[in-house]
Write a structure and sequence with these properties.
3 helices, 2 strands, elongated, two-stranded antiparallel sheet, mainly alpha
Length: 74
């Protein structure tokens, strides 16, 4: 059984879409390789004010989602 032939959306090259291929299904293996960035490897330390503001923003998001999901339409 042949693998389906796809066209990469980045480089427009044809490639065979194989099972367990890492990355995106619409990108060739060369274009699917994750970019090495120093931001993701180095952890950003947050001070107390940043942690507090992030916690408050997360709580506001949770409250908004709760209101949207469970409000009564009466």
């Amino acid at each position: 059984m042949a693998f389906p032939i796809k066209v990469c959306v980045v480089c427009n090259e044809e490639f065979a879409l194989k099972p367990d291929k890492p990355g995106f299904a619409n990108r060739c293996p060369e274009c699917s390789v994750p970019e090495e960035s120093t931001d993701s490897t180095a952890k950003h330390r947050m001070d107390a004010d940043e942690r507090k503001s992030a916690a408050e923003a997360n709580e506001a998001r949770r409250q908004a989602m709760r209101n949207l999901l469970y409000r009564k339409d009466s």
